[in-house]
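Q: I have 199 residues here and want to know how they pack in 3D. Can you give me a structure?
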Amino acid sequence: MRLLKQQGTASTPRECHADVLVMDSIMSESRSALYRDLYCAIGQATTFWAGVELNLDEIVYTIYLHYGGQSLDREIPRPISKKTRFVKNALKKCPSLARYASEIREPIIRIGKMADDRDWLVHGTLGRPDIFEMTGTIVILRTVHAGNSLKFVERRIRIADIDNHAAKLRPMMNELRRIADMLAAPFEKKVEQASSSLD
């Protein structure tokens, strides 16, 4: 930012003050854009995770209701780690799922591996904004509970890492939608047949 006039004479205090305000404004705009990119990346990843979990919920519910899942758990699992464990357990113990096992197992394993990254994005908070503003490195802070103890842990990532994570979620969301429809299809046909026989 210029602090001297082009002619080489010193700026007046008022002009210097105006220059500082312009500098602050430019820095503020740059900072705002940086945070906007960060929040946009996290928002996109979180939105895609919502789609993944919505379809996973439907898969879990269908297995619980129609494929013998009630024999494995008294309640439909809610945390994502329990959902993936439930599906993997059902693939082993519910014979009616055997023909779908090869299509279901691999996506469920992938969800389990990515779930930790999801927890960091959804449950973490931005620490050290000075590092982020200077280098673009995001310091995410989380609390970890272990019995009665509590500790704070951090992970360092970049916006590109979040974008890459989100890019993997979109096809996964579509894949789970296909699996959910596949598992529900036989029972939807039965409902259609029953309703047509009543006509």
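Q: Anything worth noting?
A: Residues 13-124+161-178 form one domain. The chain is about 70% helix and 10% strand.
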